[in-house]
Structures are given as C-alpha cells and as structure tokens.
Design brief:
This protein is of the alpha+beta class. The protein contains two helices and eight strands. The radius of gyration is 24 Å and the shape is elongated. It is a single-pass type II membrane protein. InterPro entries: SPC3.
C-alpha cells in the first residue's frame, strides 16, 4: 500500500496535466476565431468647447451616436469583449494625444449589439475630452476610432482597432452649444 503523499502527488500531477492540456487546446483554437465587426452608423457633433472657470484645462463635449454589431465574435472561447472609443489629436509640437471617451464591457452574446448615444460630459461617463493645457485643443482635428479587446477564456488577448471613423475639427474659439447651433444656422450673435 502506498503512502497517502504518493497517491496525492499522483492525483495532483494528473489534474495539472489535464488542465494544462485543456488550456493548450483553448489557446490553439483561439487562432481559428472569426473577427467580424459591423459598424452600421457612426456620427458625431461638437457641443460646448470651453475653458473651465476655476481650473486650468479645456473641455469639449462630443455628441456621439453609433451602432455596431459584434455578435459573431462571441464563441465558446470568448469570455468578454471590451469596446471603447478613442479620441486622438496632435498638438503643435507634433505629439499625439490619445484618450478613451467611452467604454463598455460586453460579457454575453445578447449584449453584443451596441446601439449607443452619449455625450461625453454626461455625469455617468467618466472620460471627458479634456486638455490640461489651455489653448491646446483649439482648432485641432480630433479623430474618433472604435476598438475592441477580445478577452478569451484561455489564450491570447486580441486588440482590434477598426480605424478612424470620424474626424472633427474643434472650433478656434470657445463656444457653448447654443452659439454653435446659431452659427451653423447662419445667425451670429
């Protein structure tokens, strides 16, 4: 009769070996996943663009409306998808600044159709389009792109950036939404 420690060692080796094979197979099947993202519509507008009264930064409101379908990406090997909208601009020195203005974690296939309308200054959103340097955002082209991180059950993390969908130029001077709508209609204040 073997000792209890020898039997427990054999059982532990069997469990570790079996789990290692399962993780290896899950990793190998992650290369066969299809990446089908469909972006049906993506539109944006610029609302308020102002300097904060007490703090030294600029703040711009973006009104974003988009629809994306990522249902086919969910398979048995996908645990979660992290979707985000990235805003990027280049300053006068040539440095590219990137910031996330919206994100969502999608954990089921039923939630994989994104119908989103948001304003990034909404209190529920935590990522405003903000520059810590006054005058840096004025008259800059802001590019919005949609990206996904596919988090598998086991295997490699995939980072998929679908490219720039919308490029908007921020105004050269500060404005609020009412002024922007009047100027767009041809009525100046």
């Amino acid at each position: 009769m073997h000792l209890l420690s020898v039997r427990s060692y054999g059982l532990a080796a069997f469990i570790v070996g079996t789990l290692s094979c399962a993780v290896l197979l899950a990793h190998m099947t992650s290369y066969f996943q299809t990446e089908s993202y469909t972006v049906a519509s993506f539109s944006t507008a610029i609302g308020d663009f102002e300097r904060h009264k007490w703090k030294m930064y600029e703040l711009a409101d973006l009104f974003v409306d988009f629809e994306a379908h990522i249902d086919d990406t969910f398979t048995w090997a996908v645990k979660m998808i992290y979707a985000y909208i990235k805003a990027s601009y280049t300053d006068d020195l040539g440095h590219t600044h990137e910031m996330i203005v919206w994100d969502r974690r999608i954990s089921s296939k039923e939630d994989a159709t994104l119908l989103v309308t948001f304003v990034n200054r909404d209190p529920t959103e935590i990522y405003p389009l903000r520059s810590l340097h006054v005058g840096e955002l004025a008259n800059k082209e802001v590019q919005l792109s949609l990206g996904f991180n596919v988090i598998p059950v086991g295997g490699l993390l995939r980072w998929d950036d679908l490219g720039t969908f919308v490029s908007k130029v921020l105004p050269a001077k500060y404005q609020n939404a009412a002024t922007a709508m009047k100027e767009a209609a041809g009525m100046s204040m």
